[in-house]
Amino acid sequence: MTPTVSRLDRLKQRVTGTAFGALGLLALFGGTPASASEADLVLPDFSSVTFFGGLNGRQLLMSGIAVCVVGLIFGFLQYASLQKLPVHRAMLEISELIYETCKTYLMTQLKFIGVLWVLIAVVMVGYFGFLQHMEPGRVAIILFASLVGIAGSCGVAWFGIRVNTFANSRTAFASLRGKPYPTYAIPLQAGMSIGMVLISTELLLMLFILLFVPVDFAGACFIGFAIGESLGASALRIAGGIFTKIADIGSDLMKIVFKIKEDDARNPGVIADCTGDNAGDSVGPSADGFETYGVTGVALITFILLAVEAQYRVQLLVWIFMMRIVMVLASLASYWINNAIQGARYKNADHMNFEAPLTFLVWLTSIVSVALTFLVSYLLIPDIGGDDTLWVKLSAIITCGTLAGAIIPEAIKAFTSTESRHVREVVTASREGGASLNVISGLVAGNFSAYWMGLIIAGLMGLAYGFSSMGVGALMIAAPVFAFGLVAFGFLGMGPVTIAVDSYGPVTDNAQSVYELSLIENVPNVKEEVQKDFGFALDFDKGKEFLEENDGAGNTFKATAKPVLIGTAVVGATTMIFSIIVLLVGITTAANGQQVLNAVNAQNLSLLHAPFLLGLITGGAIIYWFSGASMQAVSTGAYRAVEFIKANIQLEGVEKASVSDSKKVVEICTQYAQKGMINIFLVVFFSTLAFACLEPYFFVGYLISIAIFGLYQAVFMANAGGAWDNAKKLVETELKAKGTELHAATVVGDTVGDPFKDTSSVALNPVIKFTTLFGLLAVELSVELEAAGQGMLLRILSAVFFLLSTVFVYRSFYGMRIESAGPTKLESSAQVKTA
């Protein structure tokens, strides 16, 4: 092990030791009488309410388990089908090498997530065991639930890389048949396999807690489960985003330095780039999607149990879960319908627009989901609360989110598609202005996209607010908050398809790389061999053309899926923050007998309460620190990767880079991904504790600020990066200008956009949700200590945690800087070895 890795291990030991000491002190002084919290929420008796004239709620929810099993069977059948597709041994060898490096990376991350879990477990034990005085058995079950959440996030991440590495080589080989349709169908099949397994697994686990965990601590299990999956997703998203962009930049820059082709097999950075495509664009999104789906559900369950009148809780809980179950079936049906339509249209076509059938699938799923939403709502809750129109209004609120799942991708395509005016403007600017104007034009696209995305989300949330004001308040307090949670729920209504079109991208990206790395064109007698063994004539020119064009479609739909997940995080955070507000403000009974928030305490949620305003300002600071810290890790890691590649690449006398050199680049990427992640995660961890202990209303402002700043920063960065990425693709495919100055300018823009779109922006999603979820426990812990007269201890702990956070803020830059190199080192690193 290298000295750097040893220092990292020592850092882990110091971190865990410090955290145990600080949190142990908190738990020691925290033995106070328990008070009500989310952990104490009790689920209602689902069998007490009947639907459809005879079935009770529990029986209906049990039917959901059967649907989940169907979804899992479908996903694994697609997995088996992909594995059996024909593939040439040269391509299979590359895809299996990519899988092995992905597996090694994922196992490294799992070990590190275990270290991070220990920190979270200490807080949960301190809170539930010492403050809530739960018996050890119940605390153990909560901890187990958090491990299940981590296992779920990591399990679907592993499934994602296995499916994608089956699909990448099969897609590359299928492209050589000379028809474009298989090049589209295989990545989509892989994506649907991942999407169905991911959503079905998440829904199955939540139904299990809902139906089989004792009702008096199911609430605590939901919180533990959500924190666990959020921890897993945060770590995999952050580390994966850093890894993939170190590798991508290191590989891409070689095209400019040495004037070599895309994915040149002699470049030892290409295997790391392929691994990164999966680590960042498959592992991260899979874990992120799993966590997003679960956390949104937990937020709605918590809201219903806190804010809805007791007699309506069963109906609303059964309703939202049946909506999820029905939408799984809607996604599956839409996929089959789309396959039949697109197969008839393109199966024998010589050319196709790869974006068109994906767009059709998204809109078809959205329309089918909306129709089923209204139908099932009418059947389930035709007269909830004695109002026979509320089912329409609640359906309309969900529809605001479901339509967003189709409207947002359309809006994003206006800034990231190869057909968009913004992307073409980036190319035009690059013709005369080179890399400088390329970068400026990309920034313009990102800023404009944030404007339109903000208006779209605000507009949809405004519509939801309007519907919520039409009688929904009779069932609950703070009906608009419930409406916003339903919008986030609707964003994910067509979850399998959203995940599928997102997963389409890493397969198409890898397929192009697998083709180049396999050197199949150089295999002796390959045309005769393929004709004999597989029964078709190879068409290399068309294959390369289809793979490049399809990669552009993959880039576009990766870009469209990101704002959906980001929007869900922000809108869903509103509902989670409400749980904290209820805890702080309290609920009273109004003169008309209706429950309302305590108006006196609610005054603290205004600009007139200075800590609340200060919290709003502080949250923005964290977002900008995070953006810089994550890109700093990419910058330093990419520098080390480029340094190694330039010193070791061999361009004469060899066909491909050595496996040992390729693995060394993967090692560099993993090393800096972990170094960056540990700094970032611990700043988020200790900042959450520090600000929760400082002042509860400061913390609420802090959470609101993180969500709002995070939304615009993430959308801006994701879409600027998407515009730069497809500008380069446009130059490569439509203009066929590889190796020119124009191409070099767009490569520079693409490498600037890499950490924008695939590191900082996408990782903001789990960071927002983890901070909010973990903040639930942290602020409750603070309130408990304050009520016990430990205010001075709280201020001390806040200062200690804040100082610890600043240590890692300092390390996130000064501990990650690119050290200057002397002339000799710079000169030697630029030399190219020859055979």
Automatic annotation (TrEMBL):
<feature type="transmembrane region" description="Helical">
    <location>
        <begin position="393"/>
        <end position="412"/>
    </location>
</feature>
<feature type="transmembrane region" description="Helical">
    <location>
        <begin position="112"/>
        <end position="133"/>
    </location>
</feature>
<feature type="transmembrane region" description="Helical">
    <location>
        <begin position="474"/>
        <end position="494"/>
    </location>
</feature>
<dbReference type="GO" id="GO:0005886">
    <property type="term" value="C:plasma membrane"/>
</dbReference>
<keyword id="KW-1278">Translocase</keyword>
<feature type="transmembrane region" description="Helical">
    <location>
        <begin position="316"/>
        <end position="337"/>
    </location>
</feature>
<comment type="function">
    <text>Proton pump that utilizes the energy of pyrophosphate hydrolysis as the driving force for proton movement across the membrane. Generates a proton motive force.</text>
</comment>
<keyword id="KW-0460">Magnesium</keyword>
<dbReference type="GO" id="GO:0012505">
    <property type="term" value="C:endomembrane system"/>
</dbReference>
<keyword id="KW-1133">Transmembrane helix</keyword>
<comment type="similarity">
    <text>Belongs to the H(+)-translocating pyrophosphatase (TC 3.A.10) family. K(+)-insensitive subfamily.</text>
</comment>
<dbReference type="InterPro" id="IPR004131">
    <property type="entry name" value="PPase-energised_H-pump"/>
</dbReference>
<dbReference type="GO" id="GO:0004427">
    <property type="term" value="F:inorganic diphosphate phosphatase activity"/>
</dbReference>
<keyword id="KW-0472">Membrane</keyword>
<keyword id="KW-0375">Hydrogen ion transport</keyword>
<keyword id="KW-0406">Ion transport</keyword>
<feature type="transmembrane region" description="Helical">
    <location>
        <begin position="292"/>
        <end position="310"/>
    </location>
</feature>
<dbReference type="GO" id="GO:0009678">
    <property type="term" value="F:diphosphate hydrolysis-driven proton transmembrane transporter activity"/>
</dbReference>
<dbReference type="GO" id="GO:0000287">
    <property type="term" value="F:magnesium ion binding"/>
</dbReference>
<keyword id="KW-0812">Transmembrane</keyword>
<feature type="transmembrane region" description="Helical">
    <location>
        <begin position="450"/>
        <end position="468"/>
    </location>
</feature>
<feature type="transmembrane region" description="Helical">
    <location>
        <begin position="60"/>
        <end position="82"/>
    </location>
</feature>
<feature type="transmembrane region" description="Helical">
    <location>
        <begin position="564"/>
        <end position="587"/>
    </location>
</feature>
<feature type="transmembrane region" description="Helical">
    <location>
        <begin position="139"/>
        <end position="161"/>
    </location>
</feature>
<feature type="transmembrane region" description="Helical">
    <location>
        <begin position="680"/>
        <end position="712"/>
    </location>
</feature>
<keyword id="KW-0813">Transport</keyword>
<feature type="transmembrane region" description="Helical">
    <location>
        <begin position="358"/>
        <end position="381"/>
    </location>
</feature>
<comment type="subunit">
    <text>Homodimer.</text>
</comment>
<feature type="transmembrane region" description="Helical">
    <location>
        <begin position="205"/>
        <end position="227"/>
    </location>
</feature>
<feature type="site" description="Determinant of potassium independence">
    <location>
        <position position="558"/>
    </location>
</feature>
<feature type="transmembrane region" description="Helical">
    <location>
        <begin position="792"/>
        <end position="810"/>
    </location>
</feature>
<dbReference type="Pfam" id="PF03030">
    <property type="entry name" value="H_PPase"/>
</dbReference>
<feature type="transmembrane region" description="Helical">
    <location>
        <begin position="607"/>
        <end position="626"/>
    </location>
</feature>
<protein>
    <recommendedName>
        <fullName>K(+)-insensitive pyrophosphate-energized proton pump</fullName>
        <ecNumber>7.1.3.1</ecNumber>
    </recommendedName>
</protein>
<keyword id="KW-1003">Cell membrane</keyword>
<keyword id="KW-0378">Hydrolase</keyword>
